[in-house]
Amino acid sequence: MTKQVVPLDRVIIRFAGDSGDGMQLTGDRFTSETATFGNDLSTLPNFPAEIRAPAGTLAGVSSFQLHFASRDIMTPGDAPNVLVAMNPAALKANIADVPRGGSIIVNTDEFTKRALQKVGYESNPIEDGSLDSFHVHPIALTSMTVEALKEFDVSKKDAERSKNMFALGLLCWLYNRPTDGTVEFLNQKFGKKPDILAANLAAFKAGHAFGETTEDFAVSYEVKPAPMDAGTYRNITGNTALSYGLIAAGELSGLPVYLGAYPITPASDILHELSKHKQFGVVTFQAEDEIAGIGAALGASFGGALAITTTSGPGIALKSETIGLAVSMELPLVVIDIQRGGPSTGLPTKTEQSDLLQAMFGRNGEAPVPVVAPRSPVDCFDAAIEACRIATKYRTPVFLLSDGYLANGSEPWALPNVEDLPDLHVDFSTEPNHTLADGTEVFWPFKRDPETLARPWAVPGTAGLEHRLGGIEKADGSGNISYDPANHDFMVRIRQAKVDGIANDIEPLEVDDPTGDADVLVLGWGSTYGPIGAGCRRVRESGLKVAQAHFRHVNPFPANTEEVLKRYKKVLIPEMNLGQLVMLVRSKYLVDAISYNQVRGLPFKAEELAGVIEDVIKSV
Amino acid sequence: MSETSQFPSLALVPSADGPQSAKEFKSDQEVRWCPGCGDYAILAAVQGFMPELGLKRENIVWVSGIGCSSRFPYYMNTFGLHTIHGRAPAIATGLSTSRADLSVWVVTGDGDALSIGGNHLIHAMRRNVNLKILLFNNRIYGLTKGQYSPTSEQGKVTKSTPMGSLDYPFNPVSLALGAEATFVARTMDSDRQHLTSVLRAAAEHDGTALVEIYQNCPIFNDGAFDALKDGDEKEQHIIRLEHGQPITFGRERENGVIRAADGSIQVAAVAEVGLDNVLVHDAHAADPGLAFALSRLSNPDNLDQTPMGIFRSIERPTYDTLLRDQVAKSKASGKADLAALIAGNDTWTIN
After folding, report:
1. Is B2's pLDDT higher than 50?
2. Angle at which helices A163-174 and A180-189 pack, to 10 degrees?
3. Substitution target from B338, B345, B351 for chain A, most A beta carbons within 10 A
C-alpha cells in the first residue's frame, strides 16, 4: 500500500543529538540528497566546542538545521517544522525553537530515568502531556536499529552507533528524498570495513522501510525542485568555496599559492582543504603559531607567491604586528578571518561579526587595510578571488572577513565557467625604474604607479633590483630609511590614499529597492545578507516598502555609498556585534543610522528582522 | 640556467657569472652601529666571505628581526628584509620554502632570537629549514639601551635590574642542540679567520645552521668576552673543536676533555690521563650527547672552558626538500584541473 504524498513549499528540519551521535553527518547526507533533488537549500550546523562533551548533557548537544524549498530561499530558516531529538538533552535544548504544531521525532530508547534527570526533566515529556501541542512521533530508534542489525557481525556498540542512519533513512522516506547518494557515500566511507558498511546500509534501509510501514506516519511529503537558472550545480560550504577561490586566484594570477596557518576553529578547514591540492602548486605550511603562520606567508610574498594566512579573531590579535609590517612593506597578503564569538576564546564554534573594527584599526600607527566580506557560502569563492585581486594589484594586505555561519553553512552553487573568472595576472618588475641626477639607472622600490599608487613588486632573483624592505619608515621613492618628518607625513598619507583609491576600482553599492520609493534602507555587510534579505522579503509581502543594500567592500566603501545613504530617510544596520559597521558609517557619512544588534552566536532570524524593519518603517 | 654552487645546500641557487669582490656586497647605505661595535667586524667578514660562495647576488636574501644586529640587511647589497622583533626565522622560512633558488640568511641577536623570538628559532631548527642563522650574542640588550638579556649572566646589574638579574641564562648552543638543530657552531666577532671558516661550514650545510657569534657591545657590555680575546689568557679558556681531533686546549694543549667514570665529561691534564684517553671530537655523530655535554662545559660567569667551533653537523633531509617533493609528487599526478576541482564529484544539471 502506498501512502499519500502531501506537497509542501518548504520545510525546515533540525537534527539534534549528542556530539557523538553523528548529527552533522546525518545533516550533511540529507542536504546532499536534497541538493541533488533540486531544491534550493540553506544549512546551519551548530555544535559545541568540545569534541565529545559529556554524553547526554545540554552542553553536548549538536544540531544541524536544513531549510529546503521549491523556491529560492535565503536563510537556514527560523523555526524547525520537524525536530529530530536523539535524546532528552537534544529535546530540551531545542524544543523552544519548535513552533506549536511542529513535528518532533524522539528516540524513546534514550528517554531513561537517568537521562531525563541529567537534563532536569522531572517526568518524561513524551508521556506527561507537556508536548501535547506538538505532533510527537515516539520511536525506539536505537533498539530498532540494533534489531535490524542482529544478523550482522557487528558489536552492539557499533549497531547502536548506526541509529543516525536509521533516522536518516526514515527522514528520507518522509520527505521523498533520493537515496542513491547516501548508499554511494557509505560505500566510499566504509568500503574498507565491510561489516560496518553493511550495518550502516542496513540501518539506513531499515529506517526507510520503517517509514513505509509504520502507522505512525500516515503521509509523506514532497517538496518539489525549485526553479533554478540553467546550469550545473553542486552543494558547497563557505570554507570549501573560499578554499577553491584561493586556488582559482593562484591559477588566475599565475602565482603559487602559499598558505601559512595555525589551526583554529572555524578556519582550520581551509588549511585542510588547501593541503589536499598541492597539484596546483599550493604550499600549506602549518606553523608553530599564528605569528609564524602570517610571517611565513609574508616571506613567501616577498618571494613572489600569492600569500595567504587563515585564522579567526584570536589569531588576528596575534598577527596584528605582521599585518602592520605588510602595510609598511606594501607586500600582497590575504588575511582571512573566519570570525567567531569573542572576546578572547569566546564561542569558538559560534558565529559573530565582531572583528570588523579589529580588522579596520587593530594595529599600531596609521595602517589602512582593505576589507572584503563575503555574503553567502557561495560568495566566499568570489570574495576570495576579489581579496587576492586587490592584494596583488595594490601590493597590500587585505582582510577577508567570513564567519562561522558562512564557513560551515552550505547552499547550492551554480558552477562558474572557469573562462569567465577575472584575470589576475601580475607583472613583477624586471628593470630599473628610475634615473638619478647623474644619469644612473636604479631601482626604486617605492616609486609608485601614478594611477593605483601601488609600488613595484620586484622579487629576489631579479638582477639589478636588489633592495631592502623593512618596517622602518621609508623615503618616498628610494625606500631608504628615512626619519624625515615631512617624508613620514607624506608616506602615511599616500598609504591611506592608495587604499582609499580602491573605491574607484570596485563595483558600486547596489540597492534592491523594488518600488524605487522606499523610505527605509536596510544596510548590512557579510553573512547577514541572507537573513536581512529574507526579512525584507517578509516586509514586502506584508505590503510595506523597504530597500536593501549590502557591502562586499567594507574598506574602502564603494564610491557611491554616500549618495545611496542620503537617498533614504532612515538607514537600519543590523549586525551580529554591538554596532561596528554603524560606527564607521555614522562617522564617515554623518548619517543617523539606526543600529540593531544581536550577539547570540547564531544568525538573525528573518521573522525577527522583519519586525525590526517594520518598526523602523512605521516610525518614519 | 647558469652553473650552480659547489655547496650542496645551495645546489639550486644560480652561480654568479664571474668572480665577485667583497665590495660588490656592500650596499650604498651608511653603516650606523656604535664605534667599536663587534658588528662591524662580522659585517666585514661576511662581505669578505660572500664572494667565496660564488652565488648570484640577487639570489641571496638577508632577513633580520629587530635589534642592533638586525640592521645588517641594509648594509648588504643583496635582497633583504628588516622585519619585526623575533620573527625573522618565521618570515625566512616562508621565503626559503617557497623559493629553492635563494640562499637565505638570518641575522639575529640574543634578545631577538632567544627572548621574543624563541619559539620561531626552535621550530626552524627542528624542521631543518635551509636557513643560515647568525646569532650575534652580546649578552645584553643594546638597542633598548642596556637591559639584561636571556644570555646575561645571573646577577647582572643593568638599568632594569639594579639589584641584579634573577634569570638563569640560556646557553644558545645547548638550546639549539635540544631543538634538534642539524648544525650548531660558535665563533667570535674578533677572530675573522675562525668566523669565516664557520660561515663556510654553515653555508655548506644542507639545512638550518645556527651560528652563535660572540659579539662585543662596547657601550652596554664592553669586555664581555675579553676572557676569550686576551692574547695571553684566551688559550686557557677556549676549547677549539676540530672534527676528528682530540679535544685539547691550553697554551701547550696540556688540558684535555675526557669521559669520567660516571659518564660525564671533564677536563683533565693530558699528562695525567694520556692523549689516548682524551675524547676525539665527532661533529657528525648522530647522537647529540657529546655535543651537548661539550656545550655544558663552559662557565656562564667567567667563560672558562668555552668550546668554539662546530659542535654538530649532521645530515637530515631539509623541510624545504621534503615540501618540494610533496608538491612535485602531486603535480606529477597531473590533475590540476580547476574546473574539475570546483565541480567535485556530486553535481546536478538544470536545463
Report:
1. no
2. 160
3. B338
